[in-house]
Amino acid sequence: MSVDDRKLDVLRAIVEDYVATQEPVGSKALVDRHHLGVSPATIRNDMAALEDEGYIAQPHTSAGRVPTDKGYRLFVDRLSTVKPLSAAEKRAIQTFLDGALDLDDVVSRTVRLLAQLTRQAAVVQYPSLSRSTVRHVELVMLAPTRVLVVLITDTGRVEQRVVDLPADADDALVGELRARINALAVGQDFAAVEARVTELTERFGPEDRAAVAAVTATLLSTLIERHEERVAVAGTGNLARYGQEFDRELEPLLSALEEHVVLLRLLGEATSPTPVRVRIGSENAQTGLSATSVVTSGYGPGELALASMGVVGPTRMDYPGTIAAVGAVARYVSKILAAH
Amino acid sequence: MSVDDRKLDVLRAIVEDYVATQEPVGSKALVDRHHLGVSPATIRNDMAALEDEGYIAQPHTSAGRVPTDKGYRLFVDRLSTVKPLSAAEKRAIQTFLDGALDLDDVVSRTVRLLAQLTRQAAVVQYPSLSRSTVRHVELVMLAPTRVLVVLITDTGRVEQRVVDLPADADDALVGELRARINALAVGQDFAAVEARVTELTERFGPEDRAAVAAVTATLLSTLIERHEERVAVAGTGNLARYGQEFDRELEPLLSALEEHVVLLRLLGEATSPTPVRVRIGSENAQTGLSATSVVTSGYGPGELALASMGVVGPTRMDYPGTIAAVGAVARYVSKILAAH
DNA sequence: TGCTGGCACTCGACCGTTGCAAGTGCCAAT
DNA sequence: ATTGGCACTTGCAACGGTCGAGTGCCAGCA
């Protein structure tokens, strides 16, 4: 075994021990707990080298070492093997998710499941509408200048939005608009609707065009955006279980979990379902959360991810277990969505 | 001034100082900060009496006194004067709430506003549907045995639910049912709909009755229940700002804030909008939250409350300020709902 | 009767000291 | 390259003493 290999072994051992005990780990404890075939002194040399390279650090002169963000990064990228889920966990995923009826239900069950499996805070973004097809569009007049737009998709998803019209409208106009929109949108996916619905304005008289444009604009842009911005959160209580070090981070993190904008930035862009992505500590410093890590995965029926789900916790977290849980849940939810 | 009056003054002073400083308050500090016209020794006698009666307690022999739950209760019921809101706060309420479009928006703005005003965690229950009138009912077939029921109310509220039918249905049946339901329900309030819609089943042939009954049952019961169970939460981060003593309570409280069942029990029954109700510490021990207090108020357009809103925090909270804020926001939101 | 000053007492908080143990870095030897 | 030995650093816990805030009680006084 070459030197470099052992150094990486040492780093792996440090990360594992530190995550398990939450205490700085020293050279002696290391050789006791892991059967590395060398003496503490040798380990010390390796540790000094690791510290020089920035993978570990010591909180004070005479304490053990603690992994740095850079150390966790290396651990996640090259050192950790995916921890297979236990049979009980697999069973939990199935029984928890199989009873779900509609999309809301899937999302809310998923987020609670993730929180329970990882014992951390879970976040699930609602799937984007862009791949759904339109089942029905309903327009309801609330007042002469206010119309409620309701969009129903084939996945059973309902989106609503109130539109303020630039001019008065009457029931006849709304009725006609409803009929025309449904005629060209029902059964189409969103991209197709977008292409066709913009022409709709021309079919109406000039005096009605402003109102029609307002409705179609809402239908196209706002509904998608609003939907993509929706997220479900669960397991915030788990975050309170961590001690001192994480306490400072707790308040900003809880606030962030309530702010959908920050939350979505934290989840990041969902491009493809795999692989599971990990952002560690300072890597998401833009949000001011330098002591928290995020483990996310895209999910959705096809090869393209519709949305992201993930888990949020302290940098000192069980990465292999969390990655496995997030990956498994994302795969299972994707399967469910594909079956619909 | 009689003896009893001064004892109550002392209790009031203790509560105010303790809330402000978070530290046990002694007899000397008391006469220094408040201009009670007597000496520390006299105060000590009063304090001893108050302790005998269970209103205050001392954490250890040689520390100051701390209010008990019973002491807070007396303070809230008889000693605290309603602290009027500052002009800035009143302005904040108006500017924050006036831009709200639909009901969702009102609720989400309200809950954030409450959290911000009180610097604690806020909870707002969605208004019950029972006073709304039906604007439109939409049925959408998702599969031969699955129908999506969408209810649109005059307040712009949209409720949805997937129904599993006991037998296959076709478009014709669903279309007829949609037409009949809308014919008798549109413009009616919920009580009226309930009375009339049950007869609907008889109009259909025996082979369809099971399916029709399933849909109407969903329409009547589930939609209301589900809606009444919905709550919005904000400001959980504020809870992390309290020290030690509240840390133990933090995890169960955060969990409770995610569990709508517990949360609704915490909010309590909303009967009439006023007055603001306060539940202190052990008074809601059924939920296991013996160190948290809840300040709630009903709200809604009429004299009857449609739902509850409130604030959750440690027993050591600024009751007068919180009560004033909750009351003012509840009144303002009620006014907005009435104007709709 | 109620208030007050005085006094002895209690007990947690604070502080400096000390001993301990964990852990390190370095070095000479293998 | 690895190892055992050794001196060194340093946080931490235990200890003891002092301090001060706060109390309860009592005798005196209006």
UniProtKB/TrEMBL annotation, chains A, B:
Alphabetically ordered keywords of this record: Repressor, Stress response, Transcription, Transcription regulation
Organism in which the protein naturally occurs: Jiangella anatolica
The Heat-inducible transcription repressor HrcA C-terminal domain, residue ranges: 104-323
Task of the protein: Negative regulator of class I heat shock genes (grpE-dnaK-dnaJ and groELS operons). Prevents heat-shock induction of these operons.
The family this protein is said to belong to: Belongs to the HrcA family.
Top-level taxonomy: Bacteria, Bacillati, Actinomycetota, Actinomycetes, Jiangellales
Tagged with keyword Repressor: yes
Record-level GO BP terms: negative regulation of DNA-templated transcription
Superkingdom in the source lineage: Bacteria
Protein name: Heat-inducible transcription repressor HrcA
Alphabetized GO MF terms: DNA binding; DNA-binding transcription factor activity
Keyword field contains Disulfide bond: no
A Pfam family it matches: HTH_DeoR
Domain annotation HTH deoR-type: ranges: 34-61
